[in-house]
Design goal:
Number of helices: 7
Number of domains: 3
Strand content: 35-45%
CATH architecture of the largest domain: Beta Complex
Shape: elongated
Length: 334
Amino acid sequence: MAKMSNTKKIIKQEVSSFLKEIHWKKVLTFLFFVMLASIFWIMQIYRQKFEATQIIPIKYVNIPDSILLVNDMPTHIKARYKDDGITLFKYFFTKDKDSLVINVKKIINNNPQPYIIQSGVLEQMIRSKLFATSDLLSYYPSYISFQYAPLNKKQLAVIYDGYINLNPGYMKDGELKITPDFVKAYGRKEALDTLLYAHTYADTITNLTGDKTISVKIKPINGIKFVPNTVQISIPVDEYTEKEVEVPVKCINLPANMTARFFPPKVKIPMYVGLKRYKDISSANFQVVVDYNEIKEKTESTIALRILSSPDFVKTKSPVPSEVEFIIENNTEK
């Protein structure tokens, strides 16, 4: 341990002695001139003219829904230009994603088909995306042309093809609401004639414990353009509880000269209902019926009941009892 301590001490003394022998004034002077030379070199580089290539993305806007562009459109312009070094450096930060915007609707309205953006017009558009000091040397493509085909239109109802899984203890509090519930479909007549509805993607929504609104895309069809291509699906959800109401049994399709009597005359309908609607439910919301056409020639004295109508925000169980006895009386024989 003593030898190691002495070695460290010797090394420190030698390093200290070396640093004291350095002429720091000369070193600092040398470094100053190196830095000054570097600054002049950078300034010289920035003042020189260089050639560079700028890729300018093309963004097509205001494309009418009633047309289909039939040719491939260029997605970018490759512009060759010349400018000093500092400006080239600025391009990297300020012009890297600057798009060239083409208003398709305006061009269609002002020109006959085929539609061509001539080189002179295109050059002005490109120059507007460069700095004023830059010299535009060349660009490709030298012009932009496009053609379109007119489309027929058809309005279609939207069907949600997805699945909804609720958490245990929750239920849908009514029907789904689709906004908008109709979309416009554009395409060739023979293709539109085969369509009855616009279907959404078959998304699965899980673990719902409350109302939820989601955006769902219309499932695309080749050659068909949907407007809009996204709809809002509103799902009403509520925590449920059990409830029971007593409802009278009625006979439908009963001739005027007939009277139907049921035993018991009323039955109970158990159901699941959301807490928000619990107080709104009464026997008036339900119809429990027997069809005369089913019992007029029946030899047995009992018939199964059918719930003809109920609110869309409840889940009903089978009536209690699910069958009743009946008597049909002919009023003309009295």
